[in-house]
Specification:
This protein is mainly alpha-helical and 137 residues long. It folds into two domains: 57 residues, no CATH class; 70 residues. 54% of the residues lie in helices and 7% in strands. The chain has five helices and four strands, in the order αβαβααββα. Strands 1-2 form a two-stranded parallel ribbon. A two-stranded antiparallel sheet has the order 3-4. Strand 3 and strand 4 form a beta hairpin. The radius of gyration is 21 Å and the shape is extended. The N and C termini lie far apart (50 Å).
Length: 137
């Protein structure tokens, strides 16, 4: 599934965890396996699963900094007509550059989402479901 998703240019998302909602340890094991297999996310069915899934599938600050260096160095090299470079002793080619660029884009998306979420005002949905006999608060 991961290979087919990559070939189609879409992200592979792992299926929901079918264990007990209270079995956090098993959920985290499944998320880590999905990450190792190349999945980019996990379908979630309960709010308690959000934080561990986000933590597992989000890049670390070190990964983000390194990928920004890859993007910058490779774009500088491309401007000079080079197709591959060495960065910190590693060969970086176009494939590595695209992966780094995708990760930088993902981080930008995550940051923008967090900022929007912080700016959003919350609405108490209970007021929309009040019955005629319910007291209004």
């Amino acid at each position: 599934m991961v290979n087919s998703s990559n070939a189609a240019g879409v992200q592979a998302i792992d299926a929901v965890f079918f264990g007990l909602l209270t079995d956090r340890e098993e959920f985290i094991k499944e998320v880590m396996l999905a990450l190792k297999l190349g999945f980019k996310g996990e379908l979630l069915i309960h709010p308690t699963q959000i934080e561990p899934a986000n933590r597992a599938f989000s890049p670390s600050p070190n990964e983000v900094e390194y990928t920004r260096e890859v993007v910058s160095a490779f774009e500088e090299a491309q401007a000079k007509g080079l197709g591959a470079i060495s960065l910190e002793g590693k060969m970086i080619d176009y494939m590595n550059y695209r992966q780094a660029k995708d990760l930088v884009s993902l981080v930008k998306f995550i940051t923008e989402k967090k900022e929007k979420r912080q700016q959003a005002s919350y609405i108490n949905l209970a007021r929309f479901f009040l019955t005629a006999t319910s007291p209004v608060t």
